[in-house]
Write a structure and sequence with these properties.
heterodimer, A: 378 residues, alpha/beta, 6-stranded mixed sheet, 3-stranded antiparallel sheet, 12 helices, 13% strand, globular, B: 372 residues, 7-stranded mixed sheet, 5-stranded mixed sheet, EC 1.2.4.4 (chain B)
Chain lengths: 378, 372
């Protein structure tokens, strides 16, 4: 059942056009309150294809390395992995500018990478070392980058923040948009609807995006939501449902959405139908609420990286050897990053208290008696 | 009282002093900061069975669903057993109309629970982690707590019990380790209860469910598997708002709740061995309304008080206890009341071993009080 939903009408059939680029044809995306949806054709150049492949494969390998490190107990705590959903992060990044803004929930490693942070800083943050992107103080769920606001632990709480960022963009007139991501579980949180209302009322340039990976932790979407058409949940806000396993579909849809917002038409709701291979987090085996066969089926038929690779190969846009080379280079990069993450020292004890408030002079932190008097510097 | 002295535990903890650069980083992160000490087997409640904390909670819920036809259990992912397995088997046994999942909406869960309770059902709502209870804060404080008062006793939601896993767990970081009891202690109209062990958990949970007031029951998540005791299989209740004196002493009163009790047990032993100081250990059990009489009587006897909790020190519940005790027992105090609590920082990710009020900090505080 899941299979046909993901593939119906949403994949590109590539026409032959030569080695350096191809134009594909797609079926229509489901739209809500829109006259027309994203274009039915997309062009993929060889350079773009290889780039998307490299980024997706890096995210995949990074997540698998994190899985390995977690099982070795080098990463501890809570770790939510993104493998299977790479096309979403890469497609979105391909459609927006680095100066646009993005905010997501806790399944954030992929977005941290696409927003410009190196693999080794991400892995070092997971292991809690001082070279980590948040100085080792945040961990898996709290990673940040310029124009990337995290990395948020409380489900749904990041969406009103995203609307606020969009307000700032509108206020400053800088023609930027904000992509506010959330999951199918969070789609039932009250604060989302509050954000939808405000964004529509004030025509904020906010792209609300539901990454629907079919399961809110252990609960499937049918059992959690009265309506599983998440792209329609904005009611009075237009919406588009996109095949989230196809990086080109995602890119075209988000180009359309960004244009919609930048032209002052107000917010838009996107639903990316995607899938995660791992469980909700590393504590969840991921098979008590779904079957291994289902996971296998998605992996074999709709894997975003495999799909892109096969399309490029069948259109002679790249050779098997080139992909192999890219794979080897990525493996090396991730391996080095893991080395760094394992060997980097932990942040010094003083960091425990820093940056609680913004204060000009060091602030004495209460509670740290009788062991040590610690100060907070910010 | 059996004290389990584990050499590697103390050695590892010794290396936690800020000035040392220890190589055993992974080792440090694995050692728990306490050892669970089981209570003697209760004999007055009938036959017992070996259970850990989550199993004792399941047992309490099982008893409730069996005896009360209006009882319902709901929350995120409770149907398959819950993320901590507290509701395993209940759906199969009692049906999906009595044990069911809610969507991801804490405010909705509690609001819905209040409504169900007002209409007469015994509603047991689960919030997946106490850290996520804040969207429901308005519902709890403004709706649940004040229902009886504002309707002049016409309506009440006494049938509501909210359960949430609570407290540090070793690797929980900011949003899986919080202890929010102080936020709710500030709200007349609800009861806040925290057990220290499986036997206490089952009795107190059943008492909360039976109590005609909305109750919040925080379950120390680090003890879910670590705490194993012989727990009576039949239902029984332990009275609310009664603190329990676990160990009598004459020199210092120690007050704590939940996981911290086990830390304090070790502290009491250390104080006895190394300082010859006799400690009286009190488990507060019910945070709101708390048993002022037991604590004050104890302080009158000993003259010194140490309160300890994981939550940040400013505005933590120790402040309330401290203030009341100095009011009641001012002339009996030999030393200022000591509070050893979490720091005024968000619950840290990697710095957890430094943040938590471990036994060394408490021991140091006792030393200071004795030498005052």
């Amino acid at each position: 059942m899941l299979q046909t939903q993901l593939l119906s009408n949403h994949h590109f059939n590539f026409g032959r056009r030569g080695r350096d680029s191809s134009v594909g044809r797609a079926g229509k995306c489901d739209v809500h309150r829109l006259e027309e949806g994203p274009p039915l054709k997309a062009e993929l150049t060889r350079e773009q294809g290889l780039r998307y492949y490299r980024i997706m494969q890096t995210v995949r390998r990074m997540e698998l390395k994190a899985d390995q490190l977690y099982k070795q107990k080098i990463i501890r705590g809570f770790c939510h992995l993104y493998d299977g959903q790479e096309a979403c992060a890469v497609g979105i990044e391909a459609a927006i500018n680095p100066s646009d803004h993005l905010i997501t929930a806790y399944r954030a490693h992929g977005y941290t990478y696409t927003r410009g942070i190196a693999v080794k800083e991400i892995l070092a943050e997971l292991t809690g070392r001082r070279g980590g992107v948040a100085k080792g103080k945040g961990g898996s769920m709290h990673m940040y980058a310029p124009h990337f606001y995290g990395g948020n632990g409380i489900v749904g709480a990041q969406v009103p923040l995203g609307a606020g960022i969009a307000l700032a963009c509108q206020y400053q007139g800088n023609n930027q948009v904000c992509v506010a991501l959330y999951g199918d579980g969070a789609a039932n949180q009250g604060q989302l609807f509050e954000s939808f209302n405000m964004a529509a009322l004030w025509k904020l340039p906010c792209i609300f995006t539901c990454e629907n990976n079919q399961y809110g932790m252990g609960t499937s979407v049918e059992r959690a939501s009265a309506s599983t058409d998440y792209y329609k949940r904005g009611d009075f806000i237009p919406g588009i449902r996109v095949d989230g396993m196809d990086v080109l579909c995602v890119r075209e849809a988000f180009k359309f959405a960004a244009e919609h917002c930048r032209s002052g038409k107000g917010p838009i709701v996107m639903e990316l139908k995607t899938y995660r291979y791992h469980g909700h987090s590393m504590s969840d085996p991921g098979v008590s609420y779904r079957t291994r066969e289902e996971i296998q089926e998605v992996r074999s038929k709709s894997d975003p990286i495999t799909m892109l690779k096969e399309r490029m190969l069948s259109n002679n846009m790249a050779s098997v050897e080139e992909f192999k080379e890219i794979d080897i280079a990525i493996r090396k990069e991730v391996e080095e990053a893991a080395q760094y993450a394992t060997s980097d020292p932990e942040p010094p004890l003083e960091e425990l208290c820093n940056h609680i408030f913004s204060n000009d002079s060091p602030l004495e932190v209460r509670g740290t008696n009788p062991w040590a008097r610690l100060k907070s510097v910010s | 009282m059996l004290s389990l002295h584990i050499p590697t535990l103390s050695a590892t903890l010794l290396k936690l002093s800020p000035s040392s650069n220890s190589r055993t980083k992974t080792q440090r992160r694995h050692a728990a900061h306490f050892t669970f000490q089981p209570d003697p087997v209760p004999t007055q409640y009938g036959p017992t069975q070996k259970m850990n904390l989550f199993q004792s909670v399941t047992s309490a819920l099982d008893n409730t669903l069996a005896s009360d036809p209006t009882a319902v259990i709901f929350g995120e992912d409770v149907a398959f057993g819950g993320v901590f397995r507290c509701t395993v088997g209940l759906r199969d046994k009692y049906g999906k109309d009595r044990v069911f999942n809610t969507p991801l909406c804490e405010q909705g869960i509690v609001g819905f629970g209040i409504g169900a309770a007002v209409a007469g059902a015994t509603a047991i709502a689960e919030i997946q982690f106490a850290d996520y209870i804040y969207p429901a804060f308005d519902q709890i404080v403004n709706e649940a707590a004040k229902y009886r008062y504002r309707s002049g006793n016409l309506f009440d939601c006494g049938n509501l019990t909210i359960r949430a896993p609570w407290g540090c767990v070793g690797h929980g970081s900011l949003y899986h380790s919080q202890s929010p009891e102080a936020f709710f202690a500030h709200c007349p109209g609800i009861k806040v209860v925290i057990p220290r062990s499986p036997v206490q958990a089952k009795g107190l949970l059943l008492a909360c469910i039976a109590d005609q007031n909305p109750c919040i029951f925080f379950e120390p998540k680090i003890l879910y598997r670590a705490a194993v005791e012989q727990v009576p299989v039949e239902p029984y209740t332990i009275p609310l708002s009664q603190a329990e004196i676990l160990q009598e002493g004459s020199d210092v009163t120690l007050v704590a709740w939940g996981t911290q009790i086990h830390v304090m047990r070790e502290v009491a032993n250390m104080a006895q061995e190394k300082l010859g100081v006799s400690c009286e250990l009190i488990d507060l059990q019910t945070i709101l309304p708390w048993d002022t009489e037991t604590v004050c009587k104890s302080v009158v006897k000993t003259g010194r008080l140490l309160i300890s909790h994981e939550a940040p020190i400013t505005g933590g519940f120790a402040a309330e206890i401290s203030s009341t005790v100095q009011e009641e027992c001012f002339l009996n105090l030999e030393a200022p009341i000591s509070r050893v609590c979490g720091y005024d920082t968000p619950f840290p990710h990697i710095f957890e071993p430094f943040y938590i009020p471990d036994k060394w900090k408490c021991f140091e505080a006792i030393k200071k009080m004795i030498n005052y």
